[in-house]
Write the structure tokens for this entry.
Amino acid sequence: MGTLNRFTDKLIFVDTMPFIYHIEEHPVYVETGEVLVQPYRQGNDVLVAEYEGIICDTDGLLVVPIDQITSRKAARLRADHSLTMPDALQLATSLVNGANYFLTNDKGIAKTGLPQIILLDDLL
């Protein structure tokens, strides 16, 4: 529990992967893509609604729009680090909005070397 103390009173951007692990109860981490893509492909409207409910209606979670500043930052991150557009947009959103940490399990994002990035695996 001491490891988590550094997150007290901090703004943490949470990548989609931890939501996927939690909601779909994956016992082992797997690469499943962005939150809504797989449920939409599967036609699983119940799972889509569950994701949207958790993300949009949970106290303490903030959903922010992507604006021009964030889009430009994402383009710079893509150019500098060869990130995919979804990863670049998420990382840019966290940086533009002043997140202290970016929690992910995406090794590609971690390879950017940005100090805010925390791998979920490293906390376990």
In short: The chain has a mean pLDDT of 85.
